[in-house]
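Sample entry (442 residues):
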Amino acid sequence: MKPETKTPNAKALLPILLFLILYLGNGIYFEYIHPAEGQMGFYVVSVVLAFSIALIAAFCQNRAVSFEDKIRICAKGIGDENIVTMLFIFLMAGAFSGIAKEAGGAYSTANLLLNIIPGRLAVPGLFVIACLISMAMGTSVGTITVLVPIALAVSENGGISLLMCTGAVVGGAMFGDNLSFISDTTIAATKTQGVEMKDKFSANIRIALPAAVLTLIVLTVYALTGKAAVIGPFDFRILQALPYFVVLALSILGINVFIVLLAGIVLFLLAGALTGSLTYVSALSSMGSGLSGMFETMIVTILVSSIAALMREYGGFEAILALIRSKADTRRGGMFGIAALTAFMDVATANNTVAIVIAAPIAKEISEEYDVSPKVTASLLDTSSCVMQGIIPYGAQLLIAAGIAGVTSFSIMPYLLYPYILAVFVLASIVKAGAGSGKEKA
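Predicted structure, serialized as tokens:
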């Protein structure tokens, strides 16, 4: 049975506008106008606090709906099967991330690959390593934290541009984060659209892989015109690196994500025990820390699900759909609408996972109306947020990379080849898909 169509009501979008004012407004102020000493400006106001205030505002709207009914609407939104599954996966991913880091997996994997790469190909090598590490870890921030110090050493030893090395790492980190089966962005994009991760991966790889190959070619040409760098040797333990390769292989084979994460946790426990990098206490505490690190993402998911449910009830989604209908008549237009909405939300929130969670329910309705398949919608959500998150100078990725490298985030932006090339391929895929269908909206 098709749900009742709501009357478009732009006022229902006020909670999101309030969130943007609180989060983006304060972020810009404390980052660029009146910097907060010793703290990144976009982290002065907690995203959880901003969304909590936005939810209160949503509850204050529409007095025709009782408080008890609003609670039921929120509970229904939070209790969606895909949202619950997503929350459970976040927990597993947190435990995996914590134990993998403590066991030394990321550093051993990076160092193993660095020892294989010829000195003349240092920059494209950093890009490839970042791609692989991020796909295995499922986090771009974690990858940047591990590899930018290495990029700094490569730059100093080989006389290579530090900005180019850093840009290559950030680009590779965004590639892996976009495709990884255990990335929170992949989890959010697939579960909110009700598709299998392997289906979203197959749609994504057609866009991301060509963009990565072109980036690699450009970086290789750059490297071959310069001089060789001294980038080794680096210490590593194969047992610490092996679990990441197993997790990567299982993910690509399409094994259930819960099984993949559980296998990764067990393998890292064994590797840590055999190499002495883990003790009973450190293993438990690291998994606990990893779980805690996911709490904010989970709370944001719950809050956004509640706000989205209320906005849908009040007619906010219909207002956005009415705007898209006025601008788009074909499937191509619907796809552009999904990409633009997601990109805007990422610019506003500076967090690709949050952007996807906000945009996803609206994107789902757009996809149904404009005959866009769920796997393509999930791919658009992930790639569009990846593009913007990889280039905004106030996002965690560039801020952390800039802090470690000792440069400004703005100075890295011209060297972010992969996000820019990915943006071109995303737009090309939309044009191609739309032209191939030519189907008018219903």
